[in-house]
Amino acid sequence: METRALSPALPPVSVISLGSWNSFSRCSPEILERLLATAFDRGVNLLDIGYYWDKPDTEEAVAAALSALGAPRDRYMVAQKLWLWDYPAESFETQLARSLGRLRHDHVDIVMVSRPTAGLDVEAYLAEVVALIGKGMARAWGVTNFLPDQLREAIGHCDRNGWPRPVLQQMQYNAMRRGVVEGPGYAELFASGEIGLCAAHIMEGGILAGHLDRDRVDPPDFAQGVKPVDRNIARDSGHIREEIRARQPRFAALAREIGASVAQLAIAFALAHPGLKTALIGVTRPDQLEEDLDAVRFVARLPEIRAALDALAIEGVAHPKLFNPHNDI
Questions:
Q1: Largest pairwise CA distance in the chain
Q2: 185 with 149: CB under 8 angstroms?
Q3: In angstroms, rounded to a whole number, what is the distance separating the alpha carbons of residues 329 and 317?
Q4: At what angle do helices 58-69 and 29-41 cross, to 10 degrees?
Q5: Which helix (H) or strand (E) covers residue 110, if one does?
């Protein structure tokens, strides 16, 4: 598995990483152990983990599987999400300490923090994140969905204060939902190498792979007993999902044209982004993982279908709003 450098504080990261919302916790203990064993055997070395509002057992499930495997701690890295749901009443240190307890780890490798809400003192906010590294609770940090100006501001604070810069920006990015990542602001940041792209939602919650019935169930509806089809997926920022469903057969035809599965084409597209460091996949079966990891060989075939692939990009893509399950509607 190809790897790419993140920072002097970390080993190079595999270009495909494992985990996403509603991934690990959807596996039985036996399947999760096999899934992680397969990932490690194939060179995947980053697990993206978090405490999720509708799957609160994710960290414990991963901890149990890693323990059962006897996986050496230097064999993998953990990227751990920190949320703003109860911040600043609950500090990042308190939140991370609780997650470390559930993970049975004494540190994570990357803490991933959401973009700050309006009114927060950004420098103080970042200082609290960087302090986690100084306390040995994390080795590096990254961000999710920071706006371009916020990223530049954060990098500026780091340089002035002698803090480590963020190593990753996690964003939704796929063959049809690409306008934000490839648009003004972000395109320049990723091209400059100042921060690396961690591509998430690369299959639109599985819709690009053919699971057309999947959609979002918001926290209030979930609390009332509404269950998602197969799994829950992210909100439809920009309201383009119906058009994604409509274009999925054309996407599948392009995959057949180069001899790939639709999932492999979706992954290969993300891997081809010049600023990409790692792409997240959320498989739940070892055989799926084996297939998805073979997507790397199709990156070289993309020029054959590039014009048709670019024609599938959808206008009107929007940046996701900040999420809070306590008040999300």
A1: 53
A2: yes
A3: 19
A4: 60
A5: strand 108-114
Token reading at 327? 């008040």
Q: Which of 38, 62, 40, 39 has its CA nearest to residue 49?
A: 62
First and final CA of the chain: distance in angstroms? 40
Spans of all domains in the chain: 3-310
- The answer to whether the peptide bond before residue 88 is cis (omega within 30 degrees of 0) is yes
> What residue has token string 């199709």?
298
Cα→Cα distances 229→99, 128, 233, Å:
28, 38, 10
Cα angle: 101, vertex 277, 287; to 5 degrees: 70
CA distances from 311 to 66, 254, 314 (A): 42, 11, 8
CB 180 within 8 Å of CB 319: yes
Q: Which tens digit of pLDDT belongs to each residue from 152-167? A: 999 999 999 999 999 9
Tens digits of per-residue pLDDT, 23-74? 898 899 999 999 999 999 999 999 999 988 788 889 999 999 999 999 999 9
Round to whole Å and give the CA distance between 208 and 174.
Answer: 9
- HSE of 9 in the Cβ direction (CA atoms, 13 Å)? 16
Structure token digits, residue 284: 């739940």
| Architecture in CATH of 3-310 | Alpha-Beta Barrel (3.20)
Do 173 and 270 meet the contact criterion of CB atoms below 8 Å apart?
yes
Positive or negative, the CA dihedral 263, 274, 24, 126 is negative
The residue assigned the tokens 């480590």 is 164
Entry pTM: 0.95
